[in-house]
Design goal:
Layout lengths: L6 E3 L5 E2 L33 E3 L2
Antiparallel strand pairs: 1-2, 1-3
């Protein structure tokens, strides 16, 4: 997983895109580099609830 890999929340469908970042997460931050306690900004799901978008 790198800075190109997008991840999708299995609960709400939110897409984490490293090219866009998130509030308080800088652009270019790979999903694996997110803090362990990071959660979906839409539904609050844990990181383990995300799957790679192919």
């Amino acid at each position: 997983m790198d800075t190109e890999t997008r991840m999708k929340c299995l609960i709400c469908g939110h897409i984490y895109d490293p090219k866009k970042g998130e509030q308080d997460i800088p652009v270019g931050t790979a999903f694996v580099a997110l803090p362990d306690d990071w959660c979906c900004p839409v539904c609050g799901a844990a990181k383990k609830q995300f799957t790679e978008v192919k």
